[in-house]
Amino acid sequence: MKFSQSVVALVAAAGLSTASPVKRQAPAITDADILNYALTLEHLEDKFYREGLANYTQEQFASAGFDATFYKNLMTVSKDEQTHVKFLTDALTAAGATPVAECTYNYGVSDPKAFVALASVLEGVGVTAYLGAAADIMSKEYLTDAGSILTVEARHSSYIRAALGEVPFPSPFDVPLTFDEVYTLAAPFIVSCPSSNPKLPVKAFPMLALGTKGTIKSNDTITLNTPGYNLKAVDGSSQLYAAFITVTGPIFGPATPVDGGFSVMVPEGVNGQSYVVLTGCKDAVTDDTVAAGPAIVEVTNY
User: Under DSSP, is residue 282 helix (H, G, I), strand (E, B) or coil?
Assistant: First the structure.
């Protein structure tokens, strides 16, 4: 079956096909892979904070509404990320594995306010990444290490959310995402990586972006954009679904095609930094059934 470069089609009987097909049979994930996956994300955060704190002065943060205490704590967050990078690098080296090196990034921020907003998003993604990876870690020692980093990332997230005037702990449960879902969120910031970096068994799904501005609550209708491509069923009529990921399972709802993307309703049961994918399956969400996303949706029900 042929697809144009601008079309991603759902194959009803056998999962998904894209304009650039990917092999769906993923290799086994090893603990070294998981540590390098975590290190990839920690490099992303580490460079983000170092770059932002080098680009913007304490006075510029103050002018944006962030006081000296917050600036000092941001410096501590930056040091934490540097420590995480060193810890994971040392652990991989001690295990005889090659640690991934820092890549080149483009964060797309132009002022302190945008920097802090993105910091909140990245910290939230970090929490979902460690939580989602936990079940695949074989070594009890590595699992404890990852859990120790996870709790710190959660503190970072809560602190920065509070500084932005958001509820610091908006949900009783955090959301676990798969390796590929997290990598999809990280990939847009990665410009290039050293050719010597070990290849990770992850892939990025087509991008899905929130098109709705302003405060979003449950039962609101929002737009999810599919930038640069169209998404449709092969037969042109099969239903696509939006699946909001939760720890107790995805919450499905119909996705209605609109210009540039899809219109979906935010369900009850999600709050805070939430994640939604598009899929042709209404029974389960796996890496074989995700058509696009996740997109990040900040849901405010408080």
Answer: coil
